[in-house]
Each structure stands twice: as C-alpha cells, then as structure tokens.
Write a structure and sequence with these properties.
The chain is mostly helical. The chain contains 9 helices and 6 strands, in the order H-H-E-H-E-H-E-H-H-H-E-H-E-E-H. It has a two-stranded antiparallel sheet with strand order 1-4. The chain has a two-stranded antiparallel ribbon with strand order 2-3. It has a two-stranded antiparallel sheet with strand order 5-6. The longest helix is centred in the middle third of the chain and has 25 residues. The radius of gyration is 18 Å and the shape is globular. About 15% of the residues are buried.
C-alpha cells in the first residue's frame, strides 16, 4: 500500500522499498522497479510471446478471447487481458485471488520464456529494458538489469526464498479485504 502514498514515481518506490525492508525485519532492499501494467503487451511480445493454460475464470469473463483449458501463446493485448482482467461484478470478496493466481502463472511462464529466448539472443535483456524504459520507474540501471537476467539464465539461486511466509484474507465483517502477514512464519526466515 505504501506505493499509493507517494507520487507514483520515485518517492512511491522508495516508500515501498522501505515498507518491504521493514516487513522482512530490516532486510536491505537494493533497488526497485515499478512498471505500468500497460507495458505488459510490449514486454510479452519482446520475449516472443508467453505460453500459458487458460483457467476457467478467465474463459467465463472473456469467452470471445479465451477457452478454458486451452494452452495458448499470448501475444499483444491477450497478455494484458490474461494478467489484468478480473470479475469486478463478483460479490466474492476474494475474487482477486484468481487474478493473482493467473499473474503468478504468467510470471513463471514469462521468466521461462526469457530464459529460453536468451539461449538464442543474449541481447534480449537489453531489448526488454529498452522496451520498458518509457513505462518504468527504477533505481536499477541497464547494466544491473542485464546482470540479474544472466543470473536467471544461468539458473543460479541468487534470491531470497521465502518459505513459510503466507498471506491470507479475512473480512472481519467488513465489505473490504484485509491482508495480514503471518509473523511467526516469517521470523525464522529473516532473523
């Protein structure tokens, strides 16, 4: 939520960076990147499209675009719809969970496609950065971004694996969703 309290640019990212560090018990955060959701179609196409299986919820919302269970390679605006669309008319307070699940599916497939694409074109990270540049706020330079992509490409495990950190929704009688961090699960990971 901290991002929303800023200016939508660097200050928002810095607030978010500090909030994430605090959540993870002072873990240093060495950079940030915020992308406009409108950049998804261009980034998707830069890696050559992303292959996913269409979940039922999206097929119900967008029957002209998607069929449940189909494996499709998303191109252009289809990638945007896959990541963005949600049943806003639903009375289910947790309806966003299905969209979040699709976003996770897409992110994993995107990274796999990036890794595959880098086997054929090692300049792909540069192309991605240049594609995103106009719709991105970041403290990560091109050189750092390329380095991080090479780590992903090499399958090195230079990341924080947050096993046991869970978030859950609870309504407490309200018509809004509330998110809580399970403190006991996170402490052993970061201390």
């Amino acid at each position: 939520l901290q991002y929303a309290y800023g200016n939508g640019r660097d200050w928002s990212c810095q607030l978010m960076e500090q909030a994430v560090s605090n959540l993870f018990y002072g873990l240093p955060i060495h950079g940030y990147c915020a992308l406009s959701i409108n950049s998804i179609a261009d980034l998707n196409d830069t890696v050559g499209g992303v292959t996913v299986t269409v979940p039922e919820d999206l097929a119900v919302m967008q029957p002209k675009l998607f069929t449940a269970g189909d494996t499709v390679t998303l191109k252009g605006e289809l990638a945007y719809h896959f990541v963005h669309d949600r049943d806003f008319k639903s009375t289910d307070i947790a309806s966003n969970n299905k969209r979040i699940a699709r976003q996770k599916t897409y992110a994993v497939a995107f990274v796999n496609q990036l890794k595959q694409g880098m086997k054929e074109d090692m300049t792909l990270p540069v192309k991605l950065y240049q594609t995103a540049e106009k719709q991105m706020v970041t403290s990560i330079g091109l050189d750092q971004a390329v380095y991080l992509c090479t780590l992903v490409h090499a399958d090195l495990h230079h990341h924080v694996h947050v096993h046991g950190l869970y978030f859950f929704l609870g309504s407490h009688g309200r018509s809004i969703a509330e998110v809580y961090e399970r403190d006991q699960a996170a402490q052993p990971v970061f201390r």
